[in-house]
């Protein structure tokens, strides 16, 4: 077996894949660079900004030297993410000099200009028009109407075979550790027919996997009172059930995968499970649900919209109706006031929930979050010790789940191919955050984006190996 890199167990849940750029340009064409930090939702914002800039005649540069100016799309979710954003801004200023800042951290412009007073402009999250105005001022456009034609699919920062599909902005929850509603506002859902049209265009352009994202996917359409729109000769609601059903009809599992992220376990989520159990449509039996903790008292201190006991009942019901369902989640350990008994409860909860894919991070204070003022903050060394124990538990569950797949035949999507083999994913694996399946023999005829059948012949803690059938 060839030696290949394995998926690490502690990938940050707030990070998106590294951007990939089309850097073709003509002589004299103004060029913009983009540094995209943060989560997949921020990546979608970057794509929209670059799509607009491409439409106006700008080229995209993958390096500082080739750019007339650089946009840094920042993250402000955690203090460590803020520091990373400030570092990226400083690097862009040093390497290029003309820097525009946008994104979540841009909601507090004085925070940025206090550290980097030489930035040309600061705009907040999803302020596309203000970003474009700032770019026009820094680097005037010079479009050529005979050359600069907008690609039908826009500008994509992900590989061509998968794409994020953002269905809403903002969030109506008031979780004490989170400031996303302050940065991105209340829930603002896109009309369902607009989302479906975008999805159709992506599929027509060759996208094989749609990754549905928002701050709260299961609340989609609530702010629109689940209004209806004409679609395919009928009516469809701006509701996650209707949207998932229609997305699933855009293809079959042999040519398209649709994956749901950031789903809160509301009661109506159970309406999605029969769609996932139906093997004739493209909706994958996969739910990404940010549980954050298992103990009801911790969840209450977090002001989370869920009760842990009912969640375990829901999980059992989902698995009864769809045995193939895969659940991924993220958790916080060391939340203020978390006792050893509450943490042990979480470990026991994990034993019962048996989640297939799990990420975890240690609690951090975030400027502006209400959790900062809670009493009994957990010492750093205790947080680290609990994180280690939690990940040991999650790893053991993952290893047992993957070992049970040895000998099974399953479909995988091909992400990368090099001289050592093909890096693929099963339906249980989202890109960048979950595991991989490696093929190291007979892969020469494969193509990136292809969906093929593989027999699993080896399992690790987070990854699988297999051979084509």
CATH topology of the largest domain: pyruvate-formate lyase- activating enzyme
The dominant shape is globular
Distance between the termini: 18 Å
Structural class: alpha/beta
CATH architecture of the largest domain, please?
A: Alpha-Beta Horseshoe
pLDDT averaged over residues: 89
For the record, the CATH class of the largest domain is Alpha Beta
Q: From the structure provided, what is the oligomeric state, counting identical versus distinct chains?
A: single chain
Instruction: Provide the β-strand percentage band.
Output: 15-25%
Number of strand segments: 20
Strand order of the largest sheet: 6-9-12-13-14-15
Radius of gyration: 22 Å
Measured as a percent range, the helix fraction is 25-40%
The CATH H-level superfamily of the largest domain is tm_1862 like domain
Q: Note the total helix count.
A: 12
The residue ranges in which pLDDT falls below 50 over 5 or more consecutive positions are 1-19, 146-150
What is the count of distinct domains?
A: 3
Q: Could you explain how this protein is built, in words?
A:
Helices cover 30% and strands 21% of the residues. With 469 residues, it is α/β, with parallel strands linked by helices. It folds into three domains: 31-138, Rossmann fold; 162-403, pyruvate-formate lyase- activating enzyme (Alpha-Beta Horseshoe), CATH 3.80.30; 409-468, Nucleic acid-binding proteins (OB fold (Dihydrolipoamide Acetyltransferase, E2P)), CATH 2.40.50.140. Residues 157-400 form the Radical SAM core domain. [4Fe-4S] cluster 1 binds at residues 39, 75, 104.
